[in-house]
Design brief:
Number of helices: 14
Order of helices and strands: HEHHEHEHEHEHEHEHEHHHEEHEEH
Radius of gyration: 21 Å
Length: about 375
C-alpha cells in the first residue's frame, strides 16, 4: 500500500479554532478558493449544454480545443499551437499529481520542482515512485542527480511566492532541459493576475514564442480557469503543447476514464472567448490587495516577491507558526509557509480570496493591532 503524508492543511485546525473565537468572526485567508460569483455567461453555457446523455470525449471537443489554441495566441503569445495538442483536464491539480506516472517515470528518475512550491509536485513524484528534488536552477544540482532528471516543474507565477520568471529565464531552462532530454511542465494558472511591473503586461509562459521559438517539443503548459473565471467548482483546466507526448497522454487518460464532462467543456469554451469577465475579477483582487498590503506591513510583516497571483508572501522574520498564532489571535487564518517546503519557514501565505467585507475586516484588525502597540 502506498502511504502518502498527512494532508498538510489539517495542521491548521487548532489555529482556525483559535481564530474563530474573535467576536467579529473568522477571516480565512489561508486557502485560495474563489468566493465571487461564477460569471453569468459561463453559467448560461453550462446550463445550455446540460442535456448531455452521451459520454464526453477525453481529448475535448474540437470547438473547445480551438478555443484553447485561440486563447494561447491571444493571451499567451503562443502562435501555431495545433488544437490536436490540447486536452482538457479535471482541474490542474490532477495533472500535476498524475503527470509523472503518465510519463512512465519510476524508481531512479528525478522530478525537479521549485524550492518553495505547491506540495502536489512532490506527491506526483511519490505516486510514480520517482524522487522529487527542490531546485530553481538545474545548475545547482549535483551532477549525479542532474543526469537522472526526467521532468522539471516550473510554476510561474509561483504559488505561494508570486515570483514571475522572465523570458530569458524560461528560455535558458528550456535549453538546459532539452540538453538532458527532460520534459518541462509549466504550471501557469495565475498568469492573468500580474501586479506592479507585471500589471497589464503579458506574463511569459513555457509555450511563449519568445521562450521556445515555436517548438513545443517536450514542453507542457498547464492552465486552470479556477482563478481567472471563478470556476474552481467546475474543475475546468487544460494542458497544451508537446506534440511528441500529447497522443500518449490522451490515450492513457482514455484508458483511465479521466474525462471532463461535456457541459463543463462548453462552459470552458465560452469562458475562454471572453476577456471582460477576467478583467473584472482582476479588479476585485486588485482592490483587496490594495487594502491588505499596507495593513500587513503595519502589523510588522514584510511582503516579498508577490508580483503576481492571488497571494501575499509575507514574513515577520520569526517562526512561521508564531506568525500564524499572532494572526489567529486577531481572527485571521493564513497559510503556513512551511507547507511549501523547508525554504518557506518564516513565511505565511495570505490569500486575496475572501469577500470585500472580510478583507476590510482583516485590514481593520491588522491596522488596529498596529495602533495598539
Amino acid at each position: 500500500m502506498l502511504i502518502l503524508p498527512d494532508y498538510p492543511w489539517d495542521a491548521l485546525a487548532p489555529y482556525q479554532q483559535r481564530a474563530a473565537q474573535h467576536p467579529d468572526g473568522v477571516v480565512n485567508l489561508s486557502i485560495g478558493t474563489p468566493v465571487d460569483p461564477t460569471p453569468e455567461l459561463i453559467r448560461g453555457a453550462l446550463a445550455a449544454a446540460s442535456d448531455a446523455p452521451g459520454y464526453p470525449t477525453t481529448h475535448g471537443t474540437p470547438a473547445l480545443r480551438q478555443a484553447i489554441a485561440d486563447w494561447y495566441a491571444r493571451r499567451r503569445n503562443t502562435t501555431g499551437l495545433d488544437p490536436a495538442h490540447v486536452m482538457p483536464t479535471v482541474g490542474s491539480k490532477e495533472m500535476v499529481a498524475w503527470l509523472p506516472l503518465l510519463l512512465g517515470l519510476g524508481a531512479g528518475d528525478v522530478v525537479v520542482r521549485p524550492q518553495v512550491a505547491y506540495p502536489t509536485y512532490d506527491i506526483g513524484a511519490q505516486l510514480a515512485g520517482a524522487t522529487a528534488v527542490a531546485a530553481d536552477d538545474l545548475d545547482t544540482l549535483d551532477p549525479a542527480v542532474r543526469e537522472r532528471v526526467k521532468l522539471i516543474w516550473v510554476n510561474s507565477p509561483g504559488n505561494p511566492t508570486g515570483i514571475v520568471r522572465d523570458v530569458d529565464s524560461l528560455a535558458a531552462l528550456v535549453a538546459d532541459a532539452r540538453s538532458l532530454g527532460a520534459v518541462v511542465a509549466s504550471d501557469e494558472c495565475y498568469a492573468e493576475l500580474g501586479w506592479g511591473a507585471w500589471d497589464g503586461v503579458q506574463i511569459p509562459g513555457i509555450l511563449d514564442d519568445r521562450v521556445c521559438g515555436g517548438d513545443h517539443t517536450g514542453l507542457l503548459s498547464v492552465y486552470s480557469l479556477s482563478k481567472q473565471s471563478n470556476l474552481a467548482g467546475y474543475r475546468a483546466a487544460f494542458v497544451a503543447g508537446a506534440p511528441d507526448l500529447m497522443p500518449h497522454l490522451v490515450n492513457s487518460r482514455k484508458h483511465a476514464g479521466m474525462i471532463v464532462p461535456y457541459p463543463v467543456q462548453e462552459a470552458m469554451r465560452v469562458a475562454l472567448g471572453d476577456d471582460a469577465h477576467v478583467a473584472e475579477q482582476k479588479d476585485r483582487y486588485r482592490a483587496r490587495r490594495a487594502l491588505l498590503v499596507p495593513a500587513l506591513e503595519a502589523f510588522g510583516l514584510r511582503i516579498d516577491h508577490s508580483e503576481a497571483g492571488l497571494y501575499l508572501w509575507a514574513s515577520a522574520d520569526e517562526d512561521t507558526w508564531t506568525t500564524i498564532g499572532r494572526l489567529a489571535d486577531r481572527g485571521i487564518v493564513a497559510g503556513p509557509g512551511t507547507f511549501y517546503g523547508e525554504a518557506g519557514n518564516g513565511y505565511v501565505r495570505v490569500a486575496l480570496t475572501a469577500t470585500d467585507e472580510r478583507i476590510a475586516a482583516a485590514a481593520d484588525r491588522l491596522t488596529g493591532a498596529a495602533r495598539a502597540t
